[in-house]
Design a protein that fits this description.
By secondary structure, the protein is an alpha+beta fold. It has a domain of about 80 residues. About 55% of the residues lie in helices and about 15% in strands. It has 2 helices and 3 strands; from the N terminus they run E-E-E-H-H. The termini are far apart.
């Protein structure tokens, strides 16, 4: 009886092929194909996990963008409120100047020709 030679290994880009000498008498070659078994369940779970993580990351980015734009709007509103408060204070000062008795007297004398009476009489009615 003859001894069988060791199996020869040849690799192809798509799969690994092993040639094995089955029987020495018949001298037949049999091709045994070995493909790596893929874990489809693990692959699909990884895809789902990747999609979920991607969606969550996008949500975080979108939310931070919204918060940034709201922050800019808040700062703009605060600046506008501060400008309005300054304008309000300026108008209060102007109103106080316009209400002053000295100014009213000057307008009455210069523009309207009014004069202050020298004597004032008050009558008391019973």
């Amino acid at each position: 009886m003859k001894r069988t030679p060791a199996p020869k290994l040849q690799t192809n880009k798509k799969r690994a092929v092993v040639y094995e000498n089955f029987s020495a008498e018949q001298n037949e070659l049999r091709i045994i194909s070995k493909r790596p078994k893929l874990n489809h369940l693990l692959r699909s779970r990884c895809r789902v996990a990747f999609i979920i993580i991607s969606v969550l990351a996008m949500l975080v980015v979108i939310r931070s963008g919204i918060n940034a734009s709201r922050g800019y709007a808040l700062v703009a509103t605060q600046n506008q409120a501060q400008e309005l408060e300054q304008e309000n204070e300026r108008l209060r000062v102007e109103i106080a100047k316009l209400k002053s008795p000295g100014r009213i007297r000057q307008i009455a004398e210069d523009e309207l020709g009014m004069v202050l009476p020298r004597k004032m009489y008050f009558s008391h009615e019973h």
